[in-house]
Specification:
The complex is a heterodimer of chains A (about 140) and B (about 375). Helices cover about 35% and strands about 10% of the residues of chain A. The radius of gyration of chain A is 24 Å and the shape is elongated. In chain A, the strands form 2 sheets. In chain A, strands 1-4 form a two-stranded antiparallel sheet. Chain A has a two-stranded antiparallel sheet with strand order 2-3. Chain A is of the alpha+beta class. Chain A has 4 helices and 4 strands; from the N terminus they run αβαββαβα. Chain B has a 3-stranded antiparallel beta sheet. In chain B, strands 6-7-8 form a 3-stranded antiparallel beta sheet. Helices cover about 50% and strands about 10% of the residues of chain B. The two termini of chain B are about 30 Å apart. Chain B has about 375 residues and is α+β, with helices and mostly antiparallel strands. Chain B is built from 16 helices and 8 strands. The chains are: A alpha+beta (about 140), B alpha+beta (about 375). The interface between A and B is medium-sized, with 21 and 29 residues. The structure holds iron/sulfur cluster (2 copies). The site of one iron/sulfur cluster has 14 residues of chain A, from helix 2.
Chain lengths: ~140, ~375
């Protein structure tokens, strides 16, 4: 009992172990699981990251022709880093700092993107099948 | 089971939960009491059902499974991930090839998890006893453990470090030395916790002789983990189904014979010392830079089970491989599921104000049970 009493008194004058976050800057350890950043120049749109993603937070939109888009949902992501490890071209990096929350100006309509990705993939598959069928018949 | 007679006329019914200050998670207990003494208890635990077993057999392929099952519980996440991974590896047939470094990193993760979980529950138990100071101090000490985990794995509680065929990050030399320093500090705080739980008059008087479970009763109800060990049952899945190197390091199973709430706490405290020793051994046994991930080419094809010792006791995974990417069946049995059936029996005859500490001394984790 006495020991606990002394410890309590001591704790009154000790520095807190937690941080006063918004007032104090938080410096994460090396290897903190932060934001996933994508480099456009290196990416070949191979779709490996999309398939490896645990939570389905990466979608790749392949429009007809050469227009392609890589979208990432910072809210659905669980920051496991599986995509970074699966990318064969080193286009993805997990940064040390966390992703900032989505602000007012930005808009991320994820269900719309998911639908679009599904539609595009279907179309792309159909084209592929048609092409293969044509080749066989020739 | 004995039928309990309750005199309805002088009985008061007190519901506790599904939200209650003493409970960290939703559970509903309904007590029938005569004056202060509990006469009958009924339970409902399934408030947090999320259908994770089903999703594993319909949505996610097996490589994503360790991350998904990690979401079952916030406190023993890595225990779930490891049990799932080991079962999958056995199903694929690569469990013999897993490198030693991988085993060591997994062990370090699991033992750190055990440390923070034991600090958490012992602190929480002190809080429901009304001893706020110990609660505050133990959680202060727990902060160092969480920081250590943050340094190692990049997350404070949800480590996400295990994947099928290995682990996905290694511990480098610099971090290793920092961990060794942190362990000394942690050991000091465990010593403090031991002193408090053995010497402090207030706590000891409150917890001694509360909710005694005899060895026979523990066998009969199939208790697991620290609750069983406090009643003198020598069981520990780390030894019985050794996926790591626990047998090589000579893990000691800590048992006590009293079987009361205090013994359950003390078993946890003494286990913390063993955990620290295991982390030290694992750090020394292998060196960084070894292979940490195997290439997995096959799909799960056999039936496989894994028993892993989570902080609360035996965690059981069964996986039926079908040769496809998605397993045919996943069965999870969590430690709290085994520890709950005895609760209505030990609570009978206890005064109502002793119920929260008694409940906490079994360390229930209800989101695991509901999953
Ligand atoms: S895996 Fe890499 S290269 Fe392939 S689509 Fe993703 S970011 Fe691009
Ligand atoms: S970190 Fe994990 S969840 Fe997030 S995008 Fe990458 S693979 Fe998906």
């Amino acid at each position: 009992m006495l020991k606990m009493f002394i410890t309590s008194i001591k704790n009154l004058f000790r520095k807190p172990v937690t941080q006063l976050y918004p007032y104090e800057k938080y410096e994460p350890f090396d290897g903190y699981r932060g934001k996933i950043s994508w480099e456009k120049g290196k990416c070949t749109f191979c779709m490996k990251c999309g398939r490896a993603c645990t939570s389905g937070a990466i979608k790749i939109l392949i429009y007809s022709g050469e227009t392609k888009e890589w979208v990432w949902n910072p809210i659905q992501c669980i920051y496991c880093g599986e995509c970074v490890r699966s990318c064969p071209f080193g286009a993805l990096i997990q940064e040390k700092y966390y992703a900032s929350p989505i602000t007012k100006g930005e808009k991320l309509d994820w269900s719309e993107i998911e639908k679009k990705a599904g539609r595009l993939e279907d179309r792309w598959r159909r084209q592929l099948r048609d092409r293969r069928g044509k080749r066989k018949s020739e | 089971m004995k039928k309990i007679k309750v005199n309805q006329e002088i009985c008061t019914t007190i519901p506790m939960g599904s939200q209650h200050v003493a409970l960290p998670e939703p559970v509903k207990l309904v007590f029938d009491t005569e004056n202060e003494v509990v006469k009958r208890v009924s339970f409902d635990v399934s408030y947090v059902h999320r259908g994770i077993e089903k999703s594993l057999t319909t949505m996610y392929d097996f490589k994503k499974a360790p991350y998904v099952v990690g979401r079952i519980c916030g406190i023993c996440a890595i225990a779930h991930s490891i049990a799932c991974t080991v079962a999958l590896e056995r199903s694929i047939g690569i469990d013999g090839e897993v490198p030693d470094r991988v085993r060591a990193v997994r062990m370090i993760g699991l033992e750190l998890d055990r440390l923070q979980s034991h600090f958490l529950i012992n602190g929480h138990l002190a809080e429901v006893c009304g001893y706020e100071n110990i609660f505050m101090h133990l959680w202060r000490c727990r902060e160092f453990i969480l920081d250590t985990a943050d340094m190692l794995f990049g997350n404070r509680v949800q480590y996400d470090v295990v994947c099928v065929g290995g682990v996905n990050r290694d511990i480098d030399e610099k971090t290793g030395t920092r961990i060794s320093e942190a362990l000394e500090e942690i050991e000091e705080s465990i010593g403090f916790m031991e002193e408090v739980f053995t010497r402090d008059k207030t706590l000891v008087k409150r917890l001694e002789g509360l909710g005694v479970v005899s060895k026979d009763k523990a066998f009969e109800y199939g208790l697991v983990g620290p609750s069983a060990r406090a009643s003198g049952v020598k069981t520990d899945c780390r030894i019985e189904d050794d996926w790591g190197m626990y047998r090589d390091f000579g893990l000691e199973i800590i048992t006590m014979t009293e079987g009361d709430a205090l013994a359950r706490c003390l078993v946890r405290v003494l286990e913390c010392f063993e955990s620290v020793r295991m982390i030290r051994e694992a750090l020394d046994s292998t060196s960084p830079g070894e292979e940490i991930q195997l290439r997995v080419r096959d799909n799960p094809k056999k039936d496989a089970v894994c028993r892993n010792e989570a902080p609360r006791g035996e965690l059981f995974y069964y996986i039926r491989g079908t040769g496809k990417k998605i397993p045919g069946r996943v069965k999870i049995r969590t430690p709290t599921f085994a520890n709950i059936p005895i609760l209505p029996h030990v609570m009978i005859g206890v005064r109502y104000n002793d119920v929260p500490p008694l409940l906490m001394s079994f360390d229930p984790c209800l989101s695991c049970t509901g999953r």
